Amino acid sequence: MSKANFDPLKFVGATKFQTRFRPFVRFFVNRFWKFSLIGFDQIPETGPAILCANHISFLDSVFLLTHSPRNMSVVGKSEYMDSWKTRWLFTKIGMIPLDRSGGESASSAMIAVEAVLARGELFGIFPEGTRSRDGKLYKGRTGAARLALKFGCPIYPVGITGTSAIMAPDTVMPKFGKKCKIEIGPPIDTQKYMSRTDDPEVLRELTDEVMSKIQALTNQQYLYEYAPKRSSVNRTHI
């Protein structure tokens, strides 16, 4: 199945498979790496909520999802649909494919995400839109803010450190025995923005607040520009 031939609306997010998957994978990752987990007790037991994290490694979503106290759906790049192996596993554990080039399939993915929140479930997203290949924190996309205001749900900033040393971008094998810290900050009260939903600047203001809170957790250098794609980064080193 190529990414041109899939319908994101067919993917429903986290299922009972993830309920069994998370404890199984957590058993192994906790033996391969040392984790410092902070603030996970803040995640509400029920109701919709959005976790917004920085993105420095492929393992970010794996570790965050694995240690989540409840099922969590995430978005992932549609290229994972090109291989039957990743297509089967990633969609089973709750990934909703997103075509990052935009267009109709991207809109369909957002409809699928809205269905997740409408069911009162947990949703995780990386506002930068792609992995940071230089370790810096980049300007966030406004999708999470749009969803939070539509559903009136809180956004939890998440700071992940250490995963780039475990598995740097564009590497194949992780390094074992290293440390990873995942810290969830206090929820951002989106209600204070609700009276301004008709303001075209409100999404950017909320998103910037989210990124500021993430930066406070990770101490990354913050660049107020969108993260370059892989090809762009590679060209700068030619």
UniProtKB/TrEMBL annotation:
Which GO molecular function annotations are given, in alphabetical order? 1-acylglycerol-3-phosphate O-acyltransferase activity
The alphabetical list of record keywords is: Acyltransferase, Transferase
Q: Name the Pfam families for this protein.
A: Acyltransferase (PF01553)
| GO terms for cellular component | plasma membrane
UniProt-listed SUPFAM superfamilies:
Glycerol-3-phosphate (1)-acyltransferase
GO biological process terms, semicolon-separated: phosphatidic acid biosynthetic process
Question: Could you confirm whether the keyword Glycosyltransferase appears in this record?
Answer: no
The record ties this protein, via InterPro entries, to:
Plipid/glycerol_acylTrfase
Q: Which residues form the Phospholipid/glycerol acyltransferase domain?
A: 49-163
Report the protein name in the record: Unannotated protein
Organism field: freshwater metagenome
Which lineage is the organism of this entry classified under, starting from the top rank? Answer: unclassified sequences, metagenomes, ecological metagenomes
